[in-house]
Amino acid sequence: MRDPLDILKETFGFTAFRGVQSDVVDRVMRGEDTLTVMPTGAGKSLCYQLPAVALDGTTIVISPLIALMEDQVRSASANGIAAAALTSATQDRQAVERALLSGELDLLYVAPERATTERFGRMLEDARISLVAIDEAHCVSEWGHDFRPDYRLLRPLIDHLQAPRLALTATADRRTRADILQQLGIPVDGLIVAGFDRPNIRYHVVPRSGLPTQLKRLAKAQPGPGIVYCPSRAKTEKIAADLREMGRPAAAYHAGMEPHLRSGNQEAFVRSEDMVLAATIAFGMGIDKPDVRFVAHAATPKSIEAYYQETGRAGRDGEPAEAWLFWGAEDFARARQRIETEVEPERRAGERERLNALAAFVEAATCRRAILLRYFGEDPPETCGNCDNCLDPPKTIDVTVVAQKVLSAAFRTEMRFGVGYLKQVLAGDDNEKVRMNGHHQVSVFGIMDAEELALVQPVARALIARDALRADAYGGLSFGPGAKPILKGEQELVIAVPPKRTSRRRKAAED
Ligand code: ADP
Ligand code: ZN
């Protein structure tokens, strides 16, 4: 058998393995079952492509996305590897099957729904299989963020094949990882995790407050290509227009655009040295632009994993880069509502937990990097020196009493009003609406002084983020499971002292 290092040089043109690649390849070559968790861009494909070349027989790669499979086949073929894919888009399926059966293929990519058919299983019995690689392996876990039932059906197939298995994923918290090991029958000592730290990325997390101004300020301070992830298609167009108005080259990118416009914008961005792309999360997969200098989020991402993945597109060249997250309580309110209404009941607990982890991250007064790395199972130092909280440690303030008053106000006003109204009641604002509702007579009317009133917004934001308050479709706030412990004084609420407030007018101009 050829030396892996020779193959690395001759077939792939690389001088050395990167990070844990050599550990993974060694295990695979010894025939041991393995799960590797490596961040995007760390070089997962090589971990099975190299053994595919080195070992006799064909490596089967289970992969969920046709577009990615085709990319992979193209790049493997360019390296002189015999690779093919069996998908609904495959032109000459019979030729691929013949090549498999005659042992000509090093690599065969197949989607899980095809891999689990009886026909495919029978065909593999007549082929020589050297390795089964399961890409995007988090799809096998209900704890993962992208569960795909077809992945669950793979087990009989891979148990039946007498070949080592290699599961790969970029995103898996501890629980998902344990689940993948179990679901795919990989021993616990078969887990190899790469370092997730991206030391050149500086993390900043700030509450949204006059977003257009916040983004313009960022675009002014930050040269180089940048991506702004937006929560909607309309927002991408609006933000791109805002930035162009201030003289910064900017374009939008979303799935609803004319394909030629969209790819035109993408190409312009990839070539550009100073352009900002305002995009939905549809943008980024498979884009190779190493010099992105900043990634901003105009709204809260879906999870810590999504945040890590999206910010990870900044600074791939290793030069300093920035990540800015502009979050709002309404992002969390919306996400929580989505979980309760759109997610299948058995997956809600996992989704809630992921959202809570994200809320803890955005609200934290401690090192952002440490929180991210701990989430991915690492044991990082307490401080990194390259995030907002390390560079400028926020003062914290115990707002338990303010929180209790806000919660009481929600309760005394029948839990159907938004934070603006609660503030009027707490301030003792004897206006017509308050009077008409009879809320000038409730016990919490006028119980806050100016200092406390200034904290109502940030406290409400914190309460919503931790699910102590829930917003309905009209913005009315009612109790969530986190409310009682705070009201009873069993749980404190400590937040970072909020930055200086922006003016009323600027707030109104938001969106
Ligand atoms: P992932 O699937 O983990 O996101 P890829 O497999 O697409 O990552 O690899 C990311 C990039 O790193 C590719 O351009 C690949 O050619 C490159 N790469 C992978 N391994 C090495 C290595 N050992 N040395 C240099 N470059 C590598
Ligand atoms: Zn830090």
UniProtKB/TrEMBL annotation:
Which residue ranges does the record assign to the Helicase ATP-binding domain?
Answer: 25-190
Instruction: Say yes or no: keyword DNA-binding present.
Output: yes
Q: Which GO terms describe its biological process?
A: DNA recombination; DNA repair; DNA replication; SOS response
State if DNA-binding is listed as a keyword. yes
User: What does the UniProt keyword field contain?
Assistant: ATP-binding, DNA damage, DNA recombination, DNA repair, DNA-binding, Helicase, Hydrolase, Isomerase, Metal-binding, Nucleotide-binding, Zinc
Task: Write down the Pfam families for this protein, in alphabetical order.
Answer: DEAD, Helicase_C, HRDC, RecQ_Zn_bind, RQC
EC class (word): isomerase
User: What EC number(s) does its UniProt record assign?
Assistant: 5.6.2.4
Q: Which SUPFAM superfamilies match?
A: HRDC-like (SSF47819), P-loop containing nucleoside triphosphate hydrolases (SSF52540)
Give the superkingdom in one word: Bacteria
> Which GO molecular function terms does the record list?
3'-5' DNA helicase activity; ATP binding; DNA binding; four-way junction helicase activity; hydrolase activity; metal ion binding
What is this enzyme's catalytic activity, as reactions?
Couples ATP hydrolysis with the unwinding of duplex DNA by translocating in the 3'-5' direction
The residue ranges of the Helicase C-terminal domain are: 214-359
| Cofactor(s), by name | Mg(2+); Zn(2+)
Cellular component, GO, one term = replisome
**NCBIfam families reported in the protein's UniProt record:** recQ, recQ_fam
Q: What is this protein called?
A: DNA helicase RecQ
Species source reads Sphingomicrobium sediminis
Which gene holds the coding sequence for this protein?
recQ
